Amino acid sequence: MILNHDLGHLPNDQAQQLAADQALEAMLRADAAEWRAAYIHNDGFSDAVMHRVAQLPATTTARTFGRYVTPRLVIVSAAAVIGALLAIFSSGGNLLIDAVMDLATFTVTPSVVAIGGMLLVASTATIITATTER
Amino acid sequence: MTSPPAQSDHELIARVIARGDQFAFSELVKRHQSALRASLRKMTNGHAELSDDIAQETFILAWKNIGKFRFEAKFSTWLYRIAFNAWQSDIRRKSEVLMDEESMPEQGSIDSDAATIATRRDLERAMVDLSEAERAAIHQCFYNDLSHDEAAYVLQMPLGTLKTHVLRAKDKMRQRLAAYAAEPGLKLGNTREAAVESCEQGTLI
Questions:
Q1: What is the pLDDT of residue B57?
Q2: Which of A20, A83, B11, B47 has the least CB density, counted as fewest CB within 10 Å?
Q3: pTM exceeds cut of 0.95
Q4: Residues B122-173: pLDDT tens digits?
Q5: N- to C-terminal Cα distance for chain B?
Q6: How far apart are CA B95 and CA B101, in angstroms?
Q7: CATH number of B8-106
Q8: Cα radius of gyration rounded to whole Å, chain B
Q9: Are B195 and A23 in contact (CB under 8 A)?
Q10: Which of A27, A36, A134 lies at the smallest CB-CB distance from B38?
Q11: Are B194 and A15 in contact (CB under 8 A)?
């Protein structure tokens, strides 16, 4: 409810302007409320949408997900390979043993990056395969 | 026996993104179809067939792009944004001017008394003078009941620009409504007369 006396502290023209503005807003809100209140029954609308959705290529969301994940997977794989090469050359081939030892002491070394990266790539690839299967 | 609690929009969307779950998407369509179609009917000036086509296109685009949905926004707001873009594309494609004085909305879809219809007619007439951006701003803020922030997101414009459009639109509409009240020989419904006169005189309804 809009009340004239709420505007009493304003100069006359400002009060009129504000009241007119509120009156217009009230008209708009009343009209909008009536539009929104008129529920439009489904009447097969959602079936028509879902029929078209079913005709679309099934991999739509999978492709979107893949587009997001694939570049990140490539970066992690590259880091893992570089880490593995560094670890092999620097530790004489004891990659797995070195990585376990370093992990136990919370030290970040090329062997940790290599094994960690490989595990991450493998698990992400498994998740992608599991979630995008139809 | 109790039915399982309804899943939120965001939970349904997560199912669609993770598994391409069509059942979850169909729930979203059922939930939002009425509001979206009503909004588009208003935007297309009551053109039911055209608005339903755009609504269908909106949901198809939502399905195709659901991976891009960011969970900060409400799903309905995101839908309105897609619908607005689809509607604009449709206008460009057909080069139609939908909001002219000759094509007044179909009144049959909403039960209204004569005074309400007269008020609505005046509002429609007052909106004719608005620019497309001003009309869109009014539509999103009032008819879709969005906040200024949400409306700016839907219309893809800065918040300040949106507020300016709303202010200018209201200013123009106020002047138009005041002019209608001054028109001689009009037989107006009481509610509409009071509302229009209040706009003219700055009194209240």
A1: 95
A2: B11
A3: no
A4: 888 888 889 989 999 999 999 999 999 999 999 999 999 999 999 999 999 9
A5: 49
A6: 17
A7: 1.10.1740.10
A8: 19
A9: yes
A10: A36
A11: no
Tokens of B94: 């057909």
Asked if B56 and B63 touch (Cβ cutoff 8 Å), the reply is no
- Per-residue pLDDT tens for B94-127? 755 544 444 444 444 445 566 667 777 788 888 8
Q: Digits of tens for pLDDT over chain A (134 positions)?
A: 444 445 556 667 777 778 888 888 888 898 888 888 888 898 899 999 999 999 887 645 555 566 667 777 778 777 777 777 776 677 666 777 777 788 788 888 777 777 777 787 788 777 766 655 44
Residues 6+ apart with CB under 8 A from B202: A15, A16, A17, A18, A19, A20, A23
Nearest residue to B135 (alpha-carbon basis) of B164, B169, B106, B168: B169
- The beta strands (E) that lie in chain A are given as none
Q: Judged by CB atoms within 8 Å, which residues 89-128 of A form the interface with B?
A: none
Burial label, A104 (beta-carbon count in 10 A; 0-12, 13-18, 19+)? exposed
In one-letter notation, the amino acid at residue B150 is E
Say what the pLDDT of residue A10 is: 61
Of A2, A24, A50, the CB nearest to B26: A50
Residues B162, B151: Cα–Cα separation, whole Å: 8
- Architecture of the domain made up of B108-205: Orthogonal Bundle (1.10)
Answer whether B8-106 and B108-205 agree in fold: no
Sequence spans of domains, chain B? 8-106, 108-205
- Is residue B191 classed exposed, middle or buried when 0-12, 13-18 and 19+ CB atoms within 10 A define those classes? middle
Contact between A68 and B179 under an 8 Å Cβ cutoff? The reply is no
CB pairs under 8 A between A and B: 143
Q: Which residues on B lie below 8 Å from A11 (Cβ)?
A: none
